Amino acid sequence: PGAAPAPTDSGEQVGDSAVSHPATSGVARKPTTAQLLSQGKKLLHTGRYQRAIAVLKDAVRGGSGDALAQFELGHALFRAARYDEAVAAFRHAIRLDPGFAAAHCDLGSVLATMERFAEAKASMQRAVELDSTYVLALTGLGKLHLRAGEYPAAVTVLQQAVRADSASAENQYD
Length: 174
Known about the structure:
By secondary structure, this protein is mainly α. It has eight helices and four strands. The strands form two sheets. The chain has a two-stranded antiparallel sheet with strand order 1-2. Strands 3-4 form a two-stranded antiparallel ribbon. A hairpin with a 5-residue loop joins strand 1 and strand 2. The N and C termini lie far apart (52 Å).
């Protein structure tokens, strides 16, 4: 009993269903983890969260050691307001790749949404430790400092975010 297959842009089914490609002379084959990730991200970006979750769960099953698959599943679950499951997916991604700054940052975002602010701040702080120029993590951490009334810390972190963002913008035009 798996998730309902999701149609791709070409109308083929992905997920638990086999995919037939003309290049393989009609031989059906399971989609790769990369194909499932791509399809899941497309579904997520078009607001089809439940379908994205189903496809991304297939991607996780196909590439169980893939931190990116867990990370994308966490995004879909977060968008679908399935917060506890999103936390679990992001934590699994972090177990698979402890240096995955984006997973730490997004875990912090979910935890903040759940009003688990101390945990959220710790997660955002870890993201910043891993990547001191990660603007989204710096901004999230700054907001959490503000919420806690830690104004000097908030100013410091938000200034760091502005510097990182400015440096990023300058590098785009070099």
